[in-house]
Specification:
The protein has about 375 residues and is an alpha/beta fold. The chain is built from 12 helices and 18 strands. The chain has a 9-stranded mixed beta sheet with strand order 11-10-9-8-14-6-15-18-17. It has a 5-stranded mixed beta sheet with strand order 2-1-3-4-5, sandwiched between helices. A two-stranded antiparallel ribbon has the order 7-16. Helix 3 packs parallel to helix 4. It catalyses: 5-amino-6-(5-phospho-D-ribitylamino)uracil + NADP(+) = 5-amino-6-(5-phospho-D-ribosylamino)uracil + NADPH + H(+); 2,5-diamino-6-hydroxy-4-(5-phosphoribosylamino)-pyrimidine + H2O + H(+) = 5-amino-6-(5-phospho-D-ribosylamino)uracil + NH4(+).
């Protein structure tokens, strides 16, 4: 007979596999969470599944189909509490009940108000043993954008920056291509592909002719993952408070986009990109209100790729959840442009960051850091 300690080890092992499956949906599940499921009987995996995209079967359904009759009396490991409501697909809790599983282990409860414990309660009411909290921290990290939207009404905001060793992002003239090497640029492509929205400002689009598209040949993924990443491109959002960017700019020619502005829409935009009027002051879009609007549209993760002024504005307002900074082994000199436009007069005013990862990326380094104030979110 399996002891409690042995069962805990088995639960962690099979949940780790479910999380591995969930990560297959890294680029495609928006606006849904990334979820994986494993069906285990007599210590053996008899069915697996993961959620690929909204509107298609959830992870539990795929796993139950693979398991067939072997699901009866088995244990289902799922990285997020099974849903209990009718959305685009039927409730997964009902599917598990109908399959006759004997036990369900969830990594965490679903904060979605439409679920919020009701899925596990539905299973318990049917006489199925339930448990939650196995590898919960890993499950939360996997879906930090979805969780922030559900718990706080805002998307997870990641700011990508690239700089030299002396903290500069571009020459005084504005020249910035390329500070970092091919491996770092490939990593940025993957950050874009996983985001719900890639956001930039008018200055970047005007100065660099930026398109901010996902380029398949630079992703550095296998054929299957590349196809998945390209099948669900992120929405490109341009903050242009005064509508300075002309409609023939490369950014608009690259595909669908959303323009966030705080002025009346000009006539030429009637047949151009979708525009979102957001409150603002002196041509500056209210960034917090913009994030609320994006969350209301189901946006989980925002990747900010902008110049020092807009990136600095997000930072000053405390709207950044994570900084991803690529550092190249070169100096750009004292006249080059700074990383952020964020004047600070005293050391006591310097915001504190917690560095969560430092990793070599080709010839460059990637530093991931979170504001200390956001560490518990």
């Amino acid at each position: 007979m399996t002891t409690a300690a042995e069962q805990a080890i088995l639960d962690a092992r099979f949940m780790a596999r479910a999380l591995e499956l969930a990560r297959k949906g890294h680029y495609t599940t928006h606006p849904n969470p990334r979820v994986g499921c494993v069906i285990v009987r007599d210590g053996q995996i008899v069915g697996e599944g993961w959620h690929e995209r909204a509107g298609e079967p959830h992870a539990e359904v795929h796993a139950l189909r693979a398991a067939g009759e072997l699901a009866r009396g088995a244990t289902a490991y799922v990285t997020l509490e099974p849903c209990s409501h009718h959305g685009r697909t039927p409730p997964c809790a009902d599917a598990l009940v109908n399959a006759g599983v004997g036990r369900v282990v969830a990594a965490m409860r679903d904060p979605n108000p439409q679920v919020a414990g009701r899925g596990l309660q539905r299973l318990a009411d049917a006489g199925i043993a339930t448990e939650s909290g196995v590898l919960e921290s890993e499950a939360r990290k996997l879906n930090q954008g979805f969780l922030k939207r559900m718990e706080h009404g805002l998307p997870f905001v990641r700011v990508k920056l690239a700089m030299s060793l002396d903290g500069r992002t571009a020459m005084e003239s504005g020249e910035s291509q390329w500070i970092t090497g091919p491996a770092a640029r490939s990593a940025v492509q993957r950050l874009r592909a996983q985001a719900s929205v890639v956001l930039t400002g008018a200055d970047t689009v005007l100065a660099d002719g930026a398109r901010l598209t996902v380029r398949g040949d630079e992703l550095g993924l296998d054929v299957e993952q590349t196809a998945l990443a390209l099948s669900r491109p992120p929405l490109r959002v341009l903050i242009d408070g005064r509508l300075r960017v002309p409609l023939d700019a490369p950014f608009f020619k690259a595909g669908p986009a959303l323009v966030a502005t705080c002025v009346a829409i000009e006539e030429q935009y009637a047949h151009g990109p979708e525009c979102l009027i957001v409150p603002g002051d002196d041509g500056q879009v209210d960034l917090h209100q913009l994030l609320i609007e994006l969350a209301n549209r189901g946006v989980n993760e925002v990747l900010v790729e902008a110049g020092p002024r807009l990136a600095g504005a997000f930072a000053r307002l405390g709207l950044v959840d994570e900084f991803v900074i690529f550092i190249a082994g070169k100096f750009l000199g004292s006249t080059a442009r700074p990383l952020l436009d964020w004047p600070l007069a005293y050391m006591k005013d310097a915001p504190e960051l917690k560095i969560t990862e430092i990793r070599a990326v080709g010839d460059d380094w990637r530093v991931t850091a979170i504001p200390v104030s956001s560490a518990s979110v």
